TrEMBL record:
InterPro entries: 4Fe4S_Fe-S-bd (IPR017896), 4Fe4S_Fe_S_CS (IPR017900), Cys_rich_dom (IPR004017), HdrC_iron-sulfur_subunit (IPR051460). Pfam families: CCG, Fer4_8. The keyword Iron applies. Residues 18-75 form the 4Fe-4S ferredoxin-type domain. This is Iron-sulfur protein. It comes from the Bacteria. Keywords: 4Fe-4S, Iron, Iron-sulfur, Metal-binding, Oxidoreductase. It comes from Thermobrachium celere DSM 8682.
Length: 352
């Protein structure tokens, strides 16, 4: 089924059509572009003539925006496909039936059962849905450490609404984000430390009046244990992490005395959860993971997003950096988190 796009989208397409000279650097970087777009120059030319697009296609983009860093002309397919998703999903739902899974996730994530803001301080720690789903113990350990530094700090168990945004359902996203913002306001919270890079990006972009700090820049100032692990680790950078976060992560691994395969920072790739592509295109999700795997030598991977940890655990021994910081005994790899376990963990965390 084809979707006839607006003049606003046409402007983006024509701008990109003028700039693109078909070098294909982007298709070599991104598996989605390689499989579905194949030749960007011809793709833009066709779009600008036909003014329509396969209605399902924009939802296969991981929305990582990393193509813009690869392209010599900073062409950002993420912007184009995000705008298309917003337009297609405007005032209605996305055309993918399976996105009902995301809607249910968003409904539960923002229900009274799983949300709360504990404490009465003006600063808060927001672990995000994925870390809360993975390990309430790790959340409490890092929260207690932050408490020592800040004396009084809130625990914010709320979702930033990014899953709704990433499938273009802006009305829902605004509803979730406004509700989060109102709750923060009511509590007079003006500084938030986030463990999730997507929360960090979402909060920074939508609330420039708030002081948003990455947990990793905080931890980098802490005293950390010197580990004596023999194995080498590959750092899998979250696609939403900026250069400062990537640098902090490397400094933390140095302090932890870890052997690292890739100390230099490069342009990240999405783990496959971005844009919620894993829900609607399993084949592309798996191809992306296999592509990532082929570029990693070490059997162990360090991640600093619980979503990335989950995704990468399908192909490698994958650990969240907090698991290394709070390591007791041997390092034991865990597989992907089961859905029912995720919700139980979030309930547990709320009760702690
Ligand atoms: S990298 Fe940029 S210029 Fe090269 S093909 Fe891709 S979009 Fe076009
Ligand atoms: S998945 Fe990421 S790199 Fe690929 S087109 Fe979308 S935004 Fe660009
Ligand atoms: S970005 Fe992901 S983990 Fe963070 S709050 Fe939003 S949905 Fe949850």
């Amino acid at each position: 089924m084809k979707y006839k796009f607006s003049l606003k989208i046409k402007d983006i397409v024509e701008k990109y059509n003028d700039k693109c000279y078909g070098c294909n650097l982007c298709t070599n970087h991104c598996i989605f572009l390689k499989k579905y777009i194949k030749n960007p120059k011809i793709f833009f030319q066709n779009l600008s003539i036909e003014n329509d697009i396969d209605i399902y296609l924009p939802y296969y983009c991981f929305s990582c925006n990393t193509c813009s860093k690869i392209c010599p002309n900073n062409i950002d397919f993420g912007v184009l496909f995000t705008e298309l998703k917003k337009e297609i999903s405007k005032n209605k739902k996305s055309p993918h039936i399976k996105h009902s899974i995301i809607r249910n996730h968003q409904m539960l994530s923002n229900s009274k059962i799983f949300t709360t803001i504990k404490g009465n301080a003006t600063i808060g720690f927001m672990p995000g849905c994925s870390l809360s789903s993975y390990s309430p113990t790790l959340v409490m350990k890092i929260y207690n450490l932050l408490k020592i530094k800040y004396n009084d700090i809130n625990l914010i168990l709320r979702c930033c609404g990014n899953p709704s945004y990433s499938i273009g359902e802006i009305k829902k996203f605004n509803e979730i984000y406004n509700s989060l913002y109102t709750s923060l306001n009511k509590k007079n919270i003006n500084k938030i430390i986030t463990a999730c890079q997507t929360c960090y990006k979402t909060l920074k972009e939508n609330s420039p009046n708030l002081d948003i700090v990455s947990l990793w820049e905080e931890i980098n100032n802490f005293e950390l244990p010197k580990l004596t692990l023999e194995d080498k680790f590959y750092i899998f950078d979250s696609c939403s992490a900026d250069e400062n976060i990537k640098k902090s992560i490397r400094e933390i691994t140095k302090k932890l005395n870890l052997k690292i395969e890739n100390m230099e920072t490069t342009v990240s790739k999405c783990c496959g959860l971005g844009g919620c592509v894993h829900i609607v295109n399993k084949e592309l999700y798996n191809d992306n993971l296999n592509n990532i795997k082929s570029n990693i030598n070490s059997k162990n991977v360090i991640t600093y997003c619980a979503g990335c940890r989950d995704s990468l655990s399908n192909i490698k021994y994958s650990y969240h950096l907090l698991e290394l910081i709070f390591l007791e005994g041997n390092l034991t790899p865990k597989g992907p988190n089961k859905t029912h376990r995720s919700w139980i963990n979030r309930l547990k965390l709320k009760a702690l």
